[in-house]
Amino acid sequence: MEYAVLAHSGDVGARLVAAKLGERVGTDVVGLVLAEELTLAPCFSHRVGPEGEKTELRLADGRSLHSHELRGVVSRLTDAPAPRFARNPRADRDYAAMEGYALLLSWLASLPCPVVNPASPRGLAGPALGLLEWLALGAAAGLPPRRFRLGHPGAPAPEGSWLGLRAQMASSSSVGLAPLAQARPGEPTLWAEPVEEPLFEALVVGDRVFGAVGHAARGGCVELARRAGCAVLAVHLACGRRGTVLCGADPMPELGPAAATALAQLVLEQVA
Questions:
Q1: Measured in Å, how far apart are the chain's first and last C-alpha atoms?
Q2: Calpha distance 180→148 (Å, rounded)
């Protein structure tokens, strides 16, 4: 196998990317590899030493992924499933998942070929940043961020029709924050600057941007992806009183045919 697309079952976009790569270089050298196939591989030996890394990975169906043979990898992995430990106590399952994650992270980081998106301690397919982290990174990239205010429990709502949200800072985008129907006693509230609904998405693939986005915002989206180290990034935007504002980002976006084609081309360009 020379080109591998690593994904979870049900990832339609990953299958499209694998198909587009196969059309260009031949289906015999392209493989779609599911996360469960990696964690259930009968042979997965990954050694790191003074002489470098050495990995031997053979899947149950006989396919092999040798580091020196791989020319390009697309990672769509978010975690390392541990089906072997499904009947074990929760603590054991969590430990197995963390160990599997560490193994996949070390393996992906050691690959000498281009990897889209590259693994890091913050994610196996690009960094899984929190909302405020994305907003700060976007501001540095020239994208005005949507403004948020954190209100202490019982504080009145800000003037100007600000939207109350559950204060979940771990969310990567305000798209994923649930509107606050009623505050619980002692619970802080995250107030979001009012914007036009619904939010819209700009999908960055390399230097290309898919979506109805103005020229200035396109440049900011590409720069945000570059600063995040992501060749593929969904940027969530909205129109507000201050113009287009950044509401978050996601390094694991859904991929349609056009984006999958562009991603396959990007992988081949990085290899060339």
A1: 17
A2: 14
